[in-house]
Amino acid sequence: MLELIGLSRYYGATRALGKVSLTVGPGEIVGLFGENGAGKTTLLKSILGLIGHAGEVRLDGEPVTRKNIERLSFATCEHSFFPGLTANAHRDFYRDHFERWRDKRFEALMGFFELPDSRPLRRMSTGQQNQFEVILALCQGADYILMDEPFAGNDIFNREDFYKVLLGILEPTETVILSTHLLEEVENFVTRTVLIKHGDIVGDARMSDLEDEDISLMIYVKQTYGYEPDRVSRALGRLTGEEEPK
User: What is the edge-to-edge ordering of all strands in the sheet holding 2-11?
Assistant: First the structure.
């Protein structure tokens, strides 16, 4: 069980997270959604201890330390690999440092994405680098796999097929927390949706419950977020000078 207890984070006087509390259990695939600047990346980095924060992060009741941090992995579009090393060199390094490294999964995903195994990462395209970042996160042997906009620069066919592959390879105890703006693409992939706005959790729903109520993920997000359907027409009115007087 991953527990976030009153997480808060400020950048100067700007509040990025406001006492966020959340519990995520084994086997869940959680979609973390919110507008730009809502606090998604800050939340994920706080879980991993990459940035300072107030509040607690616990794994099965224990604080996250060097003893259990390997139970968490992270795929980020900012990249965490060694650009001068090849894919095979990364495999060897991770195999030596993570006891639960998944060699078979690594080979299968490298083949799925058709990535070169002997080319330095810096010589790969941005899309290929993002794919490799995801592969490392999935093969580390972590119980909780955090992904922050992992498919920037990837075409829609690769993304759609990858979600299908991921559903096929994840074990029942593996948990994914996926931050993305691609709501409609992941609607049939995630099992739970968590909405964050201005650093606060404003929505938390099981996809099965939304399906029972015949509510799409997009509609749920818009309703919970307070989306204003006429915002486009109002903006165009201001730009063209045709806005109705108050």
Answer: 14-24, 2-11, 54-59, 62-63
4 strand-pairing partners: 22, 57
CATH entry, 2-227, from 3.90.1150.10, 3.30.70.790, 3.40.50.300, 1.10.3230.20: 3.40.50.300
Predicted pLDDT at 117 = 93
> Is residue 227 pLDDT above 80, yes or no?
no
Q: Which residues contact 151 (CB under 8 A, 6 or more apart)?
A: 130, 134, 158, 159, 162, 180, 182
Cα dist from 182 to 32, 127, 149, 151, 193, whole Å: 11, 16, 9, 10, 13
- Could you give phi then psi for residue 239, rounded to 5 degrees? -70, -35
The two beta strands, 200-206 and 192-197, are antiparallel
Where in the chain are the domains? 2-227
How does pLDDT run across 161-197, given as a tens digit for each residue?
888 888 889 999 999 999 988 888 889 899 999 999 9
Percent of the chain as helix, strand, coil, to the nearest 5: 40, 25, 35
> Distance (Å, rounded) from C-alpha 161 to C-alpha 90?
24
Q: Pick the closest to residue 176 from 213, 138, 123 (CA basis).
A: 138
CA proximity to 203, closest of 211, 213, 193, 212: 193
Q: Does the global pTM surpass 0.85?
A: yes
